[in-house]
Amino acid sequence: MKCKCIIVEDKPPALETIKNYANSLANLEVVGTFQNAFQAIALLNQVKIDLMFLDINILILLGTKVLSSILHPPKIIFTSEHKELAIEAFELDAVDYLLKPVSFERFLKAVNKFCDLDQTDQTNKNPDFLYFRSDRKMVKVFLNDVTYIESFKDYIVIHRLSLPALKVKYPIGSVENMLPQRKFLRIHRSFIVSISKVTAFTNNDVEIGTTELPIGRSYPEVAKRLTVDGAL
């Protein structure tokens, strides 16, 4: 199965090189190339992309917080002409860091690293629990106990059945990627629900007990997913 990727690069020669390398690999499908980061973000908010090749200098100009605003954050392989930015890239949980000019051998090594990580993610996609850092502790959260997750400006709140809600500093997009897709569903920029905890829904909102949560305009498939996955 092909992995969907996009390329964000403001220098045409470098963009063309990465695109040609990606097109030569049977396991990658280039669905978009961008010199403008805002156009790339617009696509990422509409389509699930597996991998993004991104010039880290573009990200620095925008600010790293822009990554937390992406609805469907992909894995990232950063590119740059500067060695000294590598540490910052890996602090952002990058798959790899490619120094320009990028050789095909180095590009292939980075893609293979991504494929290994992706395979591991698929193997571990149905965990029973996750750990979240809160108040200098790692707190175990059993997924069967989660009703929904609510996002605020710089933190999320995990609402649970048997325990108090847990406030942690994680981007909601990153948490979405950690959760098993068959059990949890993003219904809004600010909400992820446990499918089995949904008690009723319309085209505009989802009910979990007495709590009503809005369905965002960017999520037209919510009702279909809830019906297919047997929420009710």
Can you describe this structure?
The protein is an alpha/beta fold. 29% of the residues lie in helices and 31% in strands. It has 2 domains: 121 residues, Rossmann fold, CATH 3.40.50; 100 residues, OB fold (Dihydrolipoamide Acetyltransferase, E2P).
Secondary-structure topology with pairs:
Elements (H helix, E strand, L loop, with lengths): L2 E6 L3 H12 L4 E7 L2 H8 L6 E5 H7 L12 E6 L5 H6 L4 E4 L4 H20 L5 E6 L2 E6 L3 E6 L4 E5 L5 E3 L3 H7 L5 E5 L2 E4 L5 E2 L3 E4 L2 E4 L7 H7 L4
Parallel strand pairs: 1-2, 1-3, 3-4, 4-5
Antiparallel strand pairs: 6-7, 8-9, 8-12, 9-10, 11-12, 13-14, 14-15
Summarize the structure.
The chain is of the alpha/beta class and 232 residues long. It has helices spanning 12-23, 37-44, 56-62, 86-91, 104-123, 172-178, 222-228, and strands at 3-8, 28-34, 51-55, 75-80, 96-99, 129-134, 137-142, 146-151, 156-160, 166-168, 184-188, 191-194, 200-201, 205-208, 211-214. The model has no long low-confidence stretch (mean pLDDT 88).
Classified by CATH, the class of the largest domain is Alpha Beta
Alpha-beta classification: alpha/beta
Q: Name the average pLDDT.
A: 88
Question: Which bin fits the share of residues in helices?
Answer: 25-40%
Question: Main traits of this protein?
Answer:
232 residues; alpha/beta; Rossmann fold; OB fold (Dihydrolipoamide Acetyltransferase, E2P); 2 domains; five-stranded antiparallel sheet; 29% helix; 31% strand; globular; Sig_transdc_resp-reg_receiver; phosphoprotein; LytTR family two component transcriptional regulator; LytR-like; DNA binding
